[in-house]
Amino acid sequence: MPDFLIEKALVRNFYGALDTVADSEIEDVLDRFCAPDYLWRGYHPFNENRTPSLVAKLFWRPLRQALTRLQRRMDIFMAGRNEIDGFSSTWVVSMGHLMGLFDGPWLGIPATGKIAMLRYCEFHRVENDRIAETAMFFDIPHLMVQAGLKPFPPQTAAQLVQPGPMTHDGLMFADQPQTEGRATLAAINAMISDLGTWSLGLPLEEELARTWTDDMIWWGPTGIGATYTIERYAKQHSGPFRAAFSERSKTAHICRMAEGHFGGFFGWPNFTATLSGPFMGHAPTGKQSEFRVIDIYRREGNKLVENWVFIDLLHFWKAQGVDVLADLNASDSGQVLPV
Known about the structure:
Elements lengths: L4 H14 L7 H8 E9 L4 E4 L1 H15 E15 L8 E13 L12 E13 L2 E9 L1 H7 L31 H18 L8 H6 L2 E8 L6 E3 L1 H15 E2 L8 E5 L2 E5 L4 E5 L12 E4 L1 E8 L2 E9 L1 H7 L4 H7 L9
Parallel strand pairs: 1-6, 7-15
Antiparallel strand pairs: 1-2, 3-4, 4-5, 5-6, 7-8, 9-12, 10-11, 11-14, 12-13, 14-15
Helix pairs in contact: 1-2, 2-3
């Protein structure tokens, strides 16, 4: 029987050390907990980096200098075997917010001196008592909005600091019944099967009702937003998204796992699609782009009820010819994305 207590303890100890050491000791912590050939995948502009010292230098140290007194406020913590590689590798997943005082600029985003919350989700592959691989996505546009900037045109759904699960049971420090994890993975796979085709021939709301409860909540990224119920999700995201894109590739994931009533996946990319209609206030370009996505789900019964979504929209839009961060650093107006 799988027992993930050792892997969970390793990641929790890593967090305990990383979140409390002085900036000058961050590299030592990553060297101690991560493999020498550590692979770290991050939201644009960080992308892929190797070696613990490089990740410390490029990401963690600048972030800690910008968000002082940093706290990790986790909403979900789980572990499981990866379905994509035949359930051979073990991954530990953490999701929540990194909260601190926004006391220094980061990536050109101006400091506010106020509380700021950076949404994040991490997938860690644990091997030989080290973290061998990480995918860490974080909602940089959400942080930009907190600093008073407008990285995107007005979105279709709501802009929020997003809460954790309604059931408040996402921190699974102890192992969960395998039967529950299998049921969650089955629900996720059923949803992927429907989503991956866009060709069931059903009205959108009927298609969604096959795998989602009617009171579903889709906690989407800044630029799209959060939306509640199948009817509003279809109207405020799924319908407009499908209308905007064509030539969607098949879904591809690096990790897909579940534990208890929660599960999720990430890809690099998850899929590609061509922007053939208007999207997020922009005209169609006819260009194909990658979608790098992390999805975390909560299941009730045999359907999905909550979904936290991290989409690297900075990477997507850069491929479409819009460099949000470059526009930010070239402008002092606060309106960084041309409408």
